[in-house]
Each structure stands twice: as structure tokens, then as C-alpha cells.
């Protein structure tokens, strides 16, 4: 699997696992960067959706406006895919800087 393919897959939710395990032997700094960004996006999206579901259960009338927040994560995913396809290291808007140095287990798999 090429570095570019790994980078793109890292933004597609569960396909992050395919990029992580499938490209372990050929991982370079670009794919590691996008794996970090993609995993960070996935973690934040899951946490925010859990909080939103709790709020919606408590106040059902807020379901429509709060569900629109999920569109933000779709837009961030698209930004990440575009950056990966162009092979640039650019952090995701809003949350990308938080994950540039996180998830050290990604570094340990480099040859």
C-alpha cells in the first residue's frame, strides 16, 4: 500500500485500521502524520457525538440543530482527504494542531 493511499484511508473512520495495519512496513513520515490527524478526528468525533446524544436524550427539541454539528466532522474529513491526496502536511482546521505530537505508538512501528 502506498503512502498516499495510507494517508487517504486514515481519514475514513474504520478504514483507519486498514491504513494502520496494511501499511505498517512501508510507513513514512507523511502517512504517520495523516494517521495521527485521522485518529484524532475519529476520537473527537466519537466523543462529541456521545455528548450530543446525551444532550438530545435530555432535550429532544434540540435534535435537529445539534445533529448539524456532525456536518463539521464531514467537512474536516474532506479537508484531511484533500491534504492527503495532495501529499501535504497541513493540520486539520480547528483540531489538527492538537494531534500533531500525539499517539506515540504510531512512531514505534517505523523501520
TrEMBL record:
Sorted UniProt keywords: Membrane, Transmembrane, Transmembrane helix
Transmembrane segments: 6-23, 35-59, 65-85
Name of protein: DUF4870 domain-containing protein
Source organism (scientific name): Sphingobacterium corticibacterium
